[in-house]
Each structure stands twice: as structure tokens, then as C-alpha cells.
Structure prediction request, 227 residues.
Amino acid sequence: AQSVTQPDIHITVSEGASLELRCNYSYGATPYLFWYVQSPGQGLQLLLKYFSGDTLVQGIKGFEAEFKRSQSSFNLRKPSVHWSDAAEYFCAVAEEDSNYQLIWGAGTKLIIKP
Amino acid sequence: DTGVSQDPRHKITKRGQNVTFRCDPISEHNRLYWYRQTLGQGPEFLTYFQNEAQLEKSRLLSDRFSAERPKGSFSTLEIQRTEQGDSAMYLCASSPPPTYEQYFGPGTRLTVT
Prediction:
């Protein structure tokens, strides 16, 4: 069955430190991959997406993610976090065969230490 | 481009009442999705439209829930005879062909008392 795993429920990082949020998926073919961010009480904002081509994709707010087919992973990174990055981060996957329906990870809550 | 908008942003209702939410997608986005999200959880798919056709509806969705997109533009989601368990954030998203990445609105927070 198709699934998306975000193994970390919470991550705490000091302001200015680097960040990596993990995402693994289970699909047969190369899926479309997404990272969304959600601040408390808000909707979801698309951070970045991967469809094909260069496996390192750049997104908004200084985020990037790397697609590694051999590891079925699409981890999100940022070299230096800011207090405003505190939010919930969701990884999602879609496939053409499934009509591009998004399958969601459970989310990772990012906490920033001052 | 004004983004996806949803109205109202907040709704408080008494159990047993009907509520209706509206979503205006980004223009030229032919797909429109409805999700429900409870605290600490990811979005739960409810239904989606391609133009005016409702193509899929979650099996988990009670028949008290109905959605329409009559002219392929805005959409409404109605919940009849609300229950306390319906309290959640209701999210709308729209997406353009051919890659169908989804752009979300701010959500409607429903509280059933």
C-alpha cells in the first residue's frame, strides 16, 4: 500500500542551527513529492515540490529537499533556522496512477530553541 | 492571483444545526479538494472535483456531508445535523493541470457545541 512516513513527531533545534526533516515513501514508480508547512491555526503552504529532473530542489524560505530514489526518501533541509520556522511540516506524495491524490505523512512539529 | 479563499474563517454552531462553507479556488485551477484536519493530525481527504464533476468521495465521509461545485468555480461543503465530532479545521485546496500540486486556503475552523 502507498504510504508516507515521517519518523520524527517532534524535532527541537536551536535558532541558527541546521535542520533536516525526514520523509520516506512507499511507492512503485517515481512519485511527485511535496513538502508543506503549517503554522498554528493556518492553512498549509507549499514549500517545495519535486516532479522530475534535478533531484535537489529549492523552495521558499530558504528550504531545500533532496530526492533519493535508492532510499525512497525526500528529506527537507535548511542550513540555518529562524524562530519563525517553528511550525508543523508535512511531507506528501502523489502519483499519476492515483489521479495525483496526495498521501500525507503524519507531520513533524519543529520547535526552535532561542 | 489572490490565492484560495475560504469563508467563513470561523464557525461556531450548536449540535444538530446545518452549516455551509464556501471555497473560492485560484482561477484556472480545474481541481478543487476538501480536507478535514483535527489538532495534531495531517489533513484527511474528504472529496475532490475536476471542474464541476465530483470525482471521488472518501468512504469515511458520512452522508451528512455533501459538496457541490456547480459551475466549476467556487465550491460549497455542507454538513447537516452537526455533531461534536465534526469539530475540526476544514481545508480547501485547488490545483492546476498537468502536475496538480495543491494550493491551500486558510481553512474554516468549525466548533460544534
Summary: The radius of gyration of chain A is 14 Å.
